[in-house]
Amino acid sequence: MDEKTSLAAGIARHLQGLGYDEKRLAEIATEVDILNGAVRKAAAARLTFDDEPAAFASLMAREAK
Amino acid sequence: MINEDPALGDLSEIGDAIGDRKLTSVQATEACLHRIETWQPRTNAFLRLEADKALAQARAMDKELAAGKRRGRLHGVPMAHKDMYYRTGQLSTGGSEIRRHWTAPVTATVLERLDAAGVVELGFLNMAEFAAGPTGHNVHHGHCRNPWDGARVTGGSSSGSGASVAARMVYGALGSDTGGSIRLPASACGVVGMKATYGRVSRAGAVARSWSLDHVGPLTRTVRDNARILGVIAGYDPDDSTTSEKAVPDYEATLDGGVAGLRIGVALPEALVPVDAQVGAAVQAATDALGRLGATILPARMPDFTDLYRSAEVMVKCEAAAMHRPWMESGAPYANQVRTRMEAGFFIPATQYIDALRLRAHFVREFLDIAMADVDAVVLPAIPFPVPTLEETDVESSGGPATLSMVARFTGLTRPFNTLGVPALSLPCGFDANGMPIGLQLVGRPFDEALLYRIGHAYQGATDHHRRVPL
Asked: Which chain B residues contact residue A32 at CB under 8 A?
């Protein structure tokens, strides 16, 4: 079991109380790695300390036609 | 002018005829029931048909009219809805096995509003399990089939809504859209579907797929019909804190404004998703038509949506995993592809989920600054390729890489606008070599549904794709 799959196994068992076989854990680890990496990269390029989720609703209201 | 068969009329035409006492609600309902008798076996669009109840409602609506009371422009008009809108004490499956026998404890706000408007409810419609799937497959209740060709998909997840409206079984239907689930079936079935601005229509009492990305909206035969329904269901709802308090315009009142003077951007975003030549040609022809009507047509620049796609996936997976956890832990009977698409949500750190939410405003800003800076609306395809067959897209049975790739590309041009929350309207703009509909997607600024309806209505006034009926 590689490091990422092993980490996924630990999260499943100890943090989420879920059981998966090693093959599925490896698939999930790959998927999560891609998603996490993309969001981290996007966040690093755009987000500042003052960004908050509610800015979306404010912007929609401000830009409303 | 009412057709000989009232089922073939438009919702607005039928609503007006009922209001003018030229047609009764019972006659309209019976016409739909007759049509359903023929088309339900071919499409499997209905999960539950409630004929007796609908006829009783229709009689009550006729009685009210006879007494001089008209509730509004939808008074007495038969509709049916995706089986995810709750009605107190009644079954609501969400297209699932898990909720096959579940009864709802509340009534959805949108149903309450349609009830108050006098709409007759014919029943509830097929859908992808828990609104998770862009094709119309459903292993629990049977796949929904496209009325134009029963071997082909309807698009999903509002599969029954698209099929029932296209086959003229109902005059209009509610669907829901988390990544394209109104616009995809509208496109594949040759009808009109509106995903309004996030917060324009209440989600209260509707099965959630992703609270952040879900949108409720109508599917209809014409733009005018769609505008009429949205005008009834839109607006602030204290039961859904994400709804806007912004006043709801009379969408029908501005339909005839035309497109002269408007600037419309055309996007054939090959960089995002390869667009089939037939689809590209149909979209080009549609924009040419809008140009002839007086709009200025410009090439549209779209932002790079790569980060947006991934952020949207993070939102959907985390929110779906959270809401489905008890069932997933207990080994409840999901279709394999529905369960596996949620599982990653248990492994994504909360910080990444929150960052995906924080990024959303940035994505909107980029879209408005890049794509919308010089235009009033953007035009692009809804589905980038011709409508495929059920077999070609059956991930549950085959699940091969080609199948998975095609299914993933289904939402490539619709999903961005759920994350952005901006309004997007799909309407028919032609037919492919297989005789299947092609959908045009119009995208606008936040809360600018009226403009999209105006453009769509002008286009439908100059074309007749929406007048073709499956045989």
From this structure: 344, 347-348
